[in-house]
TrEMBL record:
Compartment(s) of residence: Membrane
Alphabetical keyword list: Membrane, Transmembrane, Transmembrane helix
Keyword Transmembrane helix carried by entry: yes
Pfam family, one: DUF92
Topology within the bilayer: Multi-pass membrane protein
Entry GO CC: chloroplast inner membrane
PANTHER family, per the entry: TRANSMEMBRANE PROTEIN 19
Protein name per Swiss-Prot or TrEMBL: Uncharacterized protein LOC104214549
Major place of residence: membrane
Entry's family note: Belongs to the TMEM19 family.
Transmembrane segments: 84-110, 116-138, 159-180, 237-256, 297-318
Taxonomy of the source species: Eukaryota, Viridiplantae, Streptophyta, Embryophyta, Tracheophyta
Gene that encodes it: LOC104214549
Natural source organism: Nicotiana sylvestris (Wood tobacco)
Amino acid sequence: MAFSTLSSSPGLPLLLHYQKPKFSYLISNLQNPFTLNPRHHLKMSKTSSIKAQASVSDLGIIERAIQLVQSSPPTWQSALLSNVIIFTLGSPLLVSGLSVSGIGAAFLLGTLTWRAFGSSGFLLVATYFVIGTAATKVKMAQKEAQGVAEKRKGRRGPGSVIGSSAAGCVCAFLSIYGVGGEAFTRLWELAFVASFCTKLSDTVSSEIGKAYGKTTYLVTTFKVVPRGTEGAVSAEGTFAGLLASVLLSFVGYLMGQINAPGAAICVIASQIANFGESLIGASLQEKEGFQWLNNDVVNVINISLGSILAVLMQQIILQT
């Protein structure tokens, strides 16, 4: 009855007919609010598209970076990128053991090492750095009071980095450019490991000897001398240096750089080279006419001797 009354009004059917599309339009807008403003919808669509493209682009860059780092054999690009990442993340540790210029020299060494021997070679050098820095920091206050501590709280500069890695860098270049062919590839890697075993053994024996050595004597005369005297050795320091060499050669073995006989060769070569370094220090260093024979030069001689001895011992074993 009410419905027929409403229908009898001539204006209402037209009003109802006019309002119905507005109601359905509102419902559709509630379901899809972007249709309320087509320009806003277009803007949001473009923004979402740009963000999606950016995220895909970022993901692509990360994937390419990972692929580059994992490239085998290593390339200069992968070596550079890997060292940038590692040095950035490890900067707090690097600052504790190296000066700013020393970090720059270490970065060049790390890049060269990664290019020549990949991540395994880099890990070997990193292990050398961590153990060597820890040994240098042992009883630093006591060493400073006795006047035998390393300069700058043990933070080593570029001269020390180069002096400690010169032989290893030569081995890396020989490996990169394939000197001697495939037959010598493993030989250069053995010499590389031996050089750092030699230097770590020398560093640890010296630092532990200065910290804990009870009796320190010259290897040439067996005369008892103060701790820190050039060419002096102690039982405590010598034993600690031997253990450090064994540990680093074992790391090289685990990384597949050397085999078990090669690890033994590295340990033996390092101890012979360190004995030779003590002889040079006791008989020539700081003597008149040998002022040029500073610690960095002696380090180069020491690690070079360790590398050469390792190569000669390996060749003798192969021939027999």
